[in-house]
Amino acid sequence: MQKQIQSASSTKKIQPTSAVLIANPTSGSYVDNKKQVDETVQFLQAQGWDAHLQLTQRQGDAGRIAREAVERNIDVVVAIGGDGTINEVIQELAGSETALGILPSGTVNVWAREVGIPLENEAARDILLQGQRRRIDLSKVDDRYFLLMAGIGLDAEVTHEVEQKPAKKLGVPGYLLVGLWKTLTFKGFRVYLHIDGKKSIKAHAMQIVIGNTQLYGGAIKYTWQAKCNDGLLDVCIARSQDLINTLLMGIDVLLHRRQRRQWVLYETCKEVEIRTRHAITIQVDGDPSGFTSERGVINVSKELC
Ligand SMILES: Nc1ncnc2c1ncn2[C@@H]1O[C@H](COP(=O)(O)OP(=O)(O)OP(=O)(O)O)[C@@H](O)[C@H]1O
Question: Is 12 in the pocket of ligand 1 (CB under 6 A)?
Fold first, then answer.
């Protein structure tokens, strides 16, 4: 059986009685949503929920609060933030009976878009009340879970750059600007992948995306066949190209065209080992997560439990 968490969105109806809502006040659209968040807590309490709101004060708080909620057998932990906050929360919910709920309040909100949770607070809270639980897979880069995807190469470079620069304050346009700059300057890297312990691939890659889900950055689909309940990782290796072909590939991927296949190697597997000769950046669920050289071999898997 796969290591899974429960997500409030489809098969078995529940009526949760206890909930901890964890809000990241620094997430992309929290300031605009603050009033609705307070109203949502009151609304849930009026519906009979034992619901409490806790704000994070720094990175790591969401994980700590989620861990305490699991220890107290809370029914639902509601992440109010973006995919980075959700990623902190799932580290603690993995394998537990505590379900994950979402009130989207991030910049891009990829998970919410992937599973069809409305971005408007009022509609999203209805999912908390009326939605259904379902079990979903989690994948792992070494010992860190991810819900969406891990990226190595160009996208991780962009994530690392945006994190250190004022570009983050610009939100999505900041990512696009840094992304364009990196696309023009990133040289690609040599990589060796060992898939399910039997198949080897060598490539000169610009980007590797390992997906638990399909949506990437809210619009693109690198791992277009991925399902978060099939027990399989989808691995998309975008081969390094000259500038013109990189732009053509970008258009094909952006428009979800069938011919995007010509630019990539696509594999489905249960686990993959990745080696690079030089330090290449890694991102996990859209947040920076170190460099390949620190680790030697990176193991990505869907964990059995
Ligand atoms: N109070 C806080 N202060 C600073 N950072 C925080 C705080 N709470 C959480 N974080 C961190 O902020 C990072 C980004 O948050 P989050 O992903 O929720 O928002 P976002 O980046 O706007 O949204 P998205 O990921 O959907 O684009 C996460 O890595 C999270 O761990």
Answer: no
